[in-house]
UniProtKB/TrEMBL annotation:
Name listed for the protein in its UniProt record: Transposase
UniProt superkingdom: Eukaryota
Chain spans, region Disordered: 44-69
PANTHER family tied to this protein: OS01G0541250 PROTEIN
Phylogenetic placement of the source organism: Eukaryota, Viridiplantae, Streptophyta, Embryophyta, Tracheophyta
Organism of derivation: Hordeum vulgare subsp. vulgare (Domesticated barley)
Compositionally skewed regions (Polar residues) per UniProt: 49-65
GO molecular function: nucleic acid binding
InterPro entries cross-referenced by the UniProt entry: RNaseH_sf
Length: 200
């Protein structure tokens, strides 16, 4: 990403982006509406049984509850609202940043970049500011400018790649989809993700 202060100079430069955290939400589909399959002669064609494209299962967030009769974990979708995003930022993102942020960079302002989705937390959100004031780091929310090119690396590369890797597993239900996404996330090649950041 170009440094806006250097654009008018003879030697424009790029921002380091070492202080930027990208967050985004993603719906993972059980299958795609259109898939291309290459089969060998004599090999049976894959069977897809979806009555309507509106009935393709999706999952975004999950909530675990005890199923009373068998003790199994029940997986339910959660509607992502501004309150859910705020709780996620406060309870998951800020502690993760606090754990991983290097001690010698403590004075640096950390920017959490979001796109302009309606459920995302506003930069002047009171609950977020109160949570940040309780720690020693300077963390601020940054909204992507409206009508700008896509600068969220999660949408550009990471989520698409995870969706493709999960598609190869051909999940049959929501549990298999969640398990596949989690396993692909854990096994994802970090140098490949680093190459994605260079494209920004």
């Amino acid at each position: 990403m170009m440094d806006e202060h250097s654009i008018s100079t003879p030697y424009p430069s790029f921002k380091s982006m070492n202080n930027m955290v990208h967050i985004d939400e993603k719906w993972y589909d059980m299958t795609r509406v259109k898939n291309t399959y290459y089969v060998l002669p004599g090999e049976p064609e894959p069977e897809r049984t979806v009555s309507n494209t509106n009935s393709i299962g999706k999952t975004e967030a999950q909530r675990n509850n005890q199923n009373r009769d068998r003790g199994m974990i029940e997986v339910k979708s959660v509607k992502v609202t501004r309150h859910v995003c705020r709780e996620y930022l406060i309870n998951k993102v800020i502690p993760a940043i606090q754990d991983k942020w290097p001690d010698d960079d403590e004075g640096t302002t950390i920017l959490i970049q979001q796109d302009n989705a309606k459920p995302h937390v506003l930069p002047n959100d009171e609950g977020f500011r109160e949570a940040v004031e309780q720690i020693d780091l300077d963390i601020r929310l940054l909204q992507q400018p409206p009508n700008s090119p896509e600068f969220n690396v999660l949408d550009l590369c990471f989520h698409r790649s995870l969706q493709s890797l999960t598609d190869c597993r051909a999940p049959m239900n929501i549990r298999e989809l969640i398990q596949g996404v989690e396993e692909e996330f854990e096994n994802y090649d970090a140098p490949k993700l680093f190459k994605s950041f260079i494209t920004l």
